[in-house]
Amino acid sequence: MPTIYEVAAHAGVSPATVSRVFNGQNVSAEKSKRVREAAEVLGFTPNRVARTLRLQNSEVIALVIPDIENPFFTSLARGVEDVAQAAGYSVVLCNTDEDQAKEARYLDIALSANMAGVILAAAGDHSDLDALIRRGRPIVAVDRGPHGYDIDAVMVDSRAGGRAATQELARQGYRRIACITGPHDVETATLRAEGWRAALLGLGLDHADEHLIYADFRIDGGHKAMRQLVELPEPPDAVFVANNLMGVGALQLLAERGMLPPVVGMAVFGDLPIFSPTPMAVTLVSLPARHLGVTAADLLLKRINGDDQPPRTIVLRNQIVPSA
Amino acid sequence: MPTIYEVAAHAGVSPATVSRVFNGQNVSAEKSKRVREAAEVLGFTPNRVARTLRLQNSEVIALVIPDIENPFFTSLARGVEDVAQAAGYSVVLCNTDEDQAKEARYLDIALSANMAGVILAAAGDHSDLDALIRRGRPIVAVDRGPHGYDIDAVMVDSRAGGRAATQELARQGYRRIACITGPHDVETATLRAEGWRAALLGLGLDHADEHLIYADFRIDGGHKAMRQLVELPEPPDAVFVANNLMGVGALQLLAERGMLPPVVGMAVFGDLPIFSPTPMAVTLVSLPARHLGVTAADLLLKRINGDDQPPRTIVLRNQIVPSA
DNA sequence: CTTGACGGTGAAATCGATTTCTGCCATCGT
DNA sequence: ACGATGGCAGAAATCGATTTCACCGTCAAG
Prior knowledge:
2 copies of one chain form a homodimer. Helix content of chain A is 44%, strand content 17%. By secondary structure, the first copy, chain A, is of the alpha/beta class.
């Protein structure tokens, strides 16, 4: 753990000169060479902590996501990472587990660790970004909206996707279409459910109150919700599921009951992390997860580099893939 | 971004006293109260960077994994995270993409950012841990061995798993059993292949050289390798696949060719991230991914807290799940 | 009554890098 | 030949927290 002072002493120059060598300032060729040699000999690596303290800024960006076990978010993370790496930034991944308290802790860390910026898929509807914003740290919301803050965002059109998926189920002939969505306080959950409701309305179809279930965006939640639905006195003949993991859960239950699609119709928002030997009769709203990450990272890096335009919201296309 | 100095001024005490209030030293009740109030009013959060610089130590641990899109590693990450969180530590997840250069960069960051410790699933067989070790930073190897360093490790028995899986295939009546494993320079890949070879030897079965394929531990690699195998003049009648993602790829290819298990026998090391309506005829070596993470984190935290015993290697059970 | 210990406090040093500020020297233009 | 300009380099300030050191007062032990 040699410091800049030891390198300086070894090279017979001042610490300032060592710093200049590594930061591309004007240094005579000869001293520069001596410094580089000394650094080589001692195995010098500049201390990032000291550097960050002085510069009030680091080359690290935080990616805050609600569920690291969801392939959607890991794909997204890959997108962020690839862009960040290429620009010389490191990514630290923070998993909030859909818990606003954990999220707040990580945001706090990002701030007090002087990270360069944050890409946030919010765990709920009242993230507190004031401190970060006051500090001038750029933030990009991804997948889920910024909820009351006027900041950059990269999303897919949840409402339109929900509507299209539901319409597709209707086109396939299903009439009693239920909906399993995520937590009340998660924007994408409510929007997708809204899209579903809007589609039903537009088609002149009705829905019973108990055909809309708020679950937790996890496999188990989808499983339980689907059980509730099939055990209703008047069960639905199809279901729109608002994310990939709950889709898996719902399919598991249907498999147990021998009611796999197309016996019960199903449309899922997101891509199923599923391998099935025969193509499944499930309609998908396919999401550009990786691209979402790439776009968010691009936006963030632009901001970090001083881009000063008014905040943008970028909406990426999602693509309906009807079941065979 | 109020500092400790501003809090001190606001409370009419010295910065030293403010620090002592927040670090549980002796401070009179009255000043303590004034400081807390001032901190509250100003919205003071101690600057982690400054703190870390001074303490030469932070409450962050690095988790370095080769593939964030592999559910095995995300489960492992969850295990690490849960333990770390509970102990007041934060986890930063670093994805090396099986690339030793990226890995080196992240290890360097962990060191120069004064992180408390590292949990490493190595990307290859020559990770350079010298600098971290010199600095006294604890490191725990997980899933893959430490390769030449005498440090703590948490693993499953790859060789035994490979042997058991292969034996199970033989028990099911397959005779020409091939093997798809990972990169040459990844320990788990070579050990699993060794287990496979040992099983064949023990059974008096032989294998052609072209029945052992080194792929890349990814879906696509498994797909290509399986294609190579089925297109051989004398294709195998079963295959042992050394990780979960390649298992998916191999299954995809077999599905395309209408040769799904049990037409071709298959055993996979790891749990398949797969949902299949009817139970698949695939033998699994089930891995305690999350538990691996929990154990590694426990070990690391013990070291961080000064545990000074000689390094341990913990081998967790893996469980053979024969196909139906 | 003296000595010592101890609780409470502030001034100042410290962690390791960057960056002003300053001064030196050489080169250039007139 | 002389002031101006600019490259080069070191001393010292700075980022914001923690901690040593020194000092004061109080209280208990001798």
